[in-house]
Amino acid sequence: MATAASLSTLHHLSSSLLSKPSLTVRPLRILPRIITCSLSSSPSSSSSLQFNISFAPPKPKPKPDSPEPDLFPDPDALPSGQLFIPWIVRGEDGNLKLQTHPPARLLHAMANAETETKNKKKNKNKTKDKSPDNASLEPKHSKAARRFFNQNFKEPSQRLSKVLASAGVASRRNSEELIFEGKVTVNGSVCNAPQTRVDPAKDIIYVNGNRLPKRQPPKVYLALNKPKGYICSSGEKESKSVFALFDDFFKNWGKRNSGLPKPRLFTVGRLDVATTGLIIVTNDGDFAQRLSHPSSNLTKEYIAAIDGVVNNRHLIAISEGTVIEGIRCTPDSVELLPQQPDIPRPRLRIVVHDGRKHEVRELVKSAGLEIHSLKRVRIAGFRLPSDLGLGKHIELKQSDLKLLG
User: Fold this and answer.
1) For the chain, what is the largest distance between any 2 Cα atoms, rounded to a whole number of angstroms?
2) Is residue 35 situated within a structural domain?
3) Is residue 196 part of a domain?
4) Which H or E run contains 277?
5) Less packed terminus of the chain by CB within 10 Å, N or C?
6) What is the CATH number of the domain that holds 270?
7) Structural domain of residue 320, as residue ranges?
8) 284 or 245, which is more confident?
9) What is the mean pLDDT of residues 261-286?
């Protein structure tokens, strides 16, 4: 009776709520059935309701040894109500179809990616765990460091002609002529091939009966203010050579360069016995060849003191050039310098680049003038220092060598 009364009360309450217009009825979401409920209306029960509630059993945990469940099971074996998304692939006939397992190319790509990851980890471990032998190996150096070592410390084999030029025997071309003439021997045998590779520290090299020193002297670059009456070679005993002006330089060589042989100096180009001024003296054959070769196209500036009067007609004649040794030579510029109170003769500034023998003298002579004195004051961008006296020399710095090209 109590249960019936309670049900009638609930029915009455729900009817009154639904009859009100301000209330709306929303559909209820159906939840999975996880509990069970039963009503008991036994006579022995009291006036209150009694519920018997039972929960769903917990999901059993998989055993460690049990195989892993299939990620792509058969759709027919799935329990009812479970959602399954199959693979959509294109078959051999070109039509799309459904399948429960992934495509073979995807499985291969996943396997390859896993293998590459493992290999990278192994390589990293090998790099970290280096053996003591590998750790003691000489580290790699940069290209600039290796070049510096080869140029300053290491003495690899070089071409025979280059070794002779570096030792100051002659220029590269003249050294090759000496080799072709059979005047050079290497380890007791005549060598006729300029490209023969030799090592001055190990091989015994003779040039015209004179042995080439094993240790090569350092490169020397000097600028000399040549006085009048000196020649630029040492072959003639009766004439004064410009190399006699370097006696003090060689006397102090042993103090500054202990254990090194004295360099064999030679001039870069020549000035005739009556011409004064700037001349470069060195023992670097490559440097001398580069400066004296016509392809270098280096300009040289001369100051010529003229006997007589100079007018525009003479300047035009000089600028038109003249033929020397079958080749027409034209100066780069000709200029009449302003008259100086302490210099009675007119002076011309003449700039040439051909470097022919007696070129400036021939240009002035072709114009009908006579030179009283001639002085070279500049080679390329290097100018003779104004405070450098006749017969004196200075060592060229790296910045001076750059001016010389």
Assistant:
1) 160
2) no
3) yes
4) strand 275-282
5) N
6) 3.30.70.580
7) 299-379
8) 245
9) 89
Please indicate whether residue 375 or residue 111 has the higher confidence score (pLDDT).
375
What's phi and psi for 146, nearest 5 deg? Answer: -65, -40
The CATH number of the domain holding residue 365 is 3.30.70.1560
Nearest residue to 331 (alpha-carbon basis) of 307, 300, 293: 300
Is residue 272 part of the annotated active site? The answer reads yes
Q: What is the CATH number of the domain that holds 190?
A: 3.10.290.10
Please give the model's pTM, rounded to 2 decimal places: 0.56
Q: Where are the beta strands (DSSP E) in 318-397?
A: 322-324, 327-329, 333-336, 347-352, 370-379, 382-383, 393-395
pLDDT over 80 (residue 273): yes
Count of other CB atoms within 10 angstroms of residue 159: 17
Percent of the chain with pLDDT over 90: 34
Whether 311 and 355 share a structural domain: yes
Q: Is residue 96 part of a domain?
A: no
Residue type, 92: E
Asked if 360 contacts 373 with a C-beta cutoff of 8 angstroms, the reply is no
Taking the C-alpha atoms of residue 30 and residue 223, their distance in angstroms, rounded to an integer, is 108
Please state, rounded to an integer, the average pLDDT across all residues of the chain: 77
Instruction: Spell out the long-range contacts of 126-132 with Cβ–Cβ below 8 A and sequence spacing 24 or more.
Output: none
304 lies in the same domain as 238 = no
User: ∠136-128-110 over CA atoms, to 5°?
Assistant: 140
Q: Which residue has the higher pLDDT, 255 or 204?
A: 204
At 43-78, the pLDDT tens digits run 444 445 555 555 556 656 655 555 544 444 555 555
The number of folded domains in the chain is 3
**Whether residues 164 and 231 fall in one domain:** no
The C-alpha angle 165, 171, 172, rounded to 5 degrees, equals 70
Domain membership flag for residue 163: yes
374 in the same domain as 267: no
Residues 355-384 have pLDDT tens digits of: 788 999 999 999 999 999 999 999 999 999
Which one from 272, 284, 387, 400 is the annotated catalytic residue?
Answer: 272
Model confidence at 129, in pLDDT bands (50, 70, 90)? Answer: low
One domain for residues 207 and 222: no
Pick from 168, 187, 211: which residue ends a domain? 211
